[in-house]
Structures are given as structure tokens and as C-alpha cells.
Amino acid sequence: xxxxxxxxxxxxxxxxxxxxxxxxxxxxxxxxxxxxxxxxxxxxxxxxxxxxxxxxxxxxxxxxxxxxxxxxxxxxxxxxxxxxxxxxxxxxxxxxxxxxxxxxxxxxxxxxxxxxxxxxxxxxxxxxxxxxxxxxxxxxxxxxxxxxxxxxxxxxxxxxxxxxxxxxxxxxxxxxxxxxxxxxxxxxxxxxxxxxxxxxxxxxxxxxxxxxxxxxxxxxxxxxxxxxxxxxxxxxxxxxxxxxxxxxxxxxxxxxxxxxxxxxxxxxxxxxxxxxxxxxxxxxxxxxxxxxxxxxxxxxxxxxxxxxxxxxxxxxxxxxxxxxxxxxxxxxxxxxxxxxxxxxxxxxxxxxxxxxxxxxxxxxxxxxxxxxxxxxxxxxxxxxxxxxxxxxxxxxxxxxx
Length: 401
Prior knowledge:
The chain is α+β, with helices and mostly antiparallel strands. The protein has ten helices and ten strands.
């Protein structure tokens, strides 16, 4: 049989891109990932390699210097990268969401200014929606942008920025009451602001502070930060799309493709966990034979492989639906929900197969065991996904009585 998670219907260019990425992952990421993760060290050389491969511009149109590839191609690349080290896929993902939002919603001037440099990885994107007291309730955003002449003055505190320190362009969601009278629905009075900054920590431009990296259980290496705006002034032409009040819809469009990305990450981590589990099961001997020959272990491997296949199929379906131009919030929500839950289960089964050695930092599965839980939360919890899925199902299957 072929290996797990194969994708039918790819063209020659897609297959070549994926083969190149997989080779890079096997040679440049897997051998160093655990060591870098334990040191919580940013993978500078890996990121430079991804820039040389053109992955920062994978979905950016060719007219702006990108490769102009589909969401499916991107998601399959993310799956491969996450198989090597999930943190690296996070670095790419937040950059990609900002580039996607610019491509879909930006003014021509904004596209011309940022997309060519983003395609090269010279400008690196970060995506800022969450706040310390926000959770899943986006309507509770309190950060605010107030018009002052030809500028906006931004104030507020944002949370959980991936690439917060290394990025140079942040898409920030704030309230903006200008032109939206009191009583306007919260989601109609939000605006996305494009904030340029210097990389690093501390005050990275007047009025904007990145305090430092948040110490996390897993998902290390990548810089996850807060963002504090204190009378931060930005020009009015840095409102995404040039019109206020559209930020919620722009962000949700970005999150929708982000959910496909998180599903792809779950698929990649689950694949790696299966690879580690099936390999160890053939090396470890008990009662005179490899543990892979014990029925209990074979049952685990069968369940793990089936979950890897199912999650991959749903992720591919969600990406293809988005590429077709159709609404895909149902498919993206299902894919994200299933892939993240199955990832957690496959990683735990691989951990159990390793026995006591799975608890040792010398074994790669220990890192995966700490990384998988982030996928249960990122781009919306399982409960949020189930709400989206449930509402969409009721739209499709409305009772006619």
C-alpha cells in the first residue's frame, strides 16, 4: 500500500512543490526540531530556508512576486512542515493570513506596498484579534481606533500574537465608532488596521510595545506575545480596504482559511506521531517478540492510521471548497474540529506505545505530546467549531413544517 495521507488529483507542479518541502523537512527540520524546541530557540536558519524555497509567497499572486498557488497546495505544505515541527508552520500561517487578507480586501496601494515584500519574506506578517479578557467572544473587543485628522489613534492590549516579535506588519482588529452610531451591532463597528513596526521586543515604534515572549507549555521556538497600544498613531490609509466597519468580516475570512491551516497542522503532527509509534513498535521487544506483533498494539496502530486518513481527507475537502470560491465555513469547521481532536488522540496513542520512554525528553514523542493541545484551542475551540457546524447544518436542513 502507499503511505498514509496521499492526495489524489494533484498536478505536476503541486507534486514537485510537496516533494521539495518534504525533503527540506526531512533534512533540515526533523534533525534539529527537538533540540531547538527544548531551548525555546527561534529557528532562524529554517526560516531562511523556507524563504529561499519561496514559501512565504506561496499563495501571493505572481504579479506581486509570489507563486500564485492554491489554498490546497499551501495546506499540504503546512501539513508537511508541521510533521517536522509545528512551530515552524505557525510562523508561516500568521504571515499567510495577513497576506491573504491583503490580497482579498486590501486597496491597490496596500497590495502594491506590502505583497511583493511579503512574497520575499522581507515583510513578515502577524495577526492580532484576541485580547486578555476576550476568549472566544470577538464582539467583546475593547481595543479602539479613533480618527484624528488624517490619522487614527489606537489604544488597547492584544494577546496571543504568533510572530509578535519577529513580524514587521501586524493586522490588528479594533473598535472604530466613526460612522457607526451608538447601538450599531458590535461586528459592524470593527476595523482592521495595518500596523507597521520594527522587529524585536520593547517599544518597537512610538506608542507600540511588544513586552516579550509568553512562556508556553509547548509550541516553543515561535515568539508568542502580547501587543500594547498606547496612543499609537497610524495613517488613515492603513485601514485595511480603506473603509472602517469591515474588520470583523475581513478577520473571519482570514480565520476561515486559518482553520484549514490548523487542520493541516493537526494532520501533520498526527502523521509524525504515527510514524514514531509504528517505528518504535517494531523495535521494542516484549515477551520474546516486537510489540507490533501483539494484537493490542496492532489495534492501536489501526485506529491511529484511520484517524490520520480521515483528518487528511476532510482537510483536503475544506481547502478545495475554498479554492472553488464557495463558502466553506462548515467544511473548515469540521476539518479543524476533527483534525485537532484526532491529532490529540493519535499523539496520545503513540505516547502510550512508547511506554515510559515517551515521558523522556530524549524521545521526539514527548515534544509532540506538549504541542498537540494548542491545536485544540487555536483558531477557535472545539466548542466554537461545533457551534459553527450546528448552525450551518440547521441552515441546510431547515425543517419545512
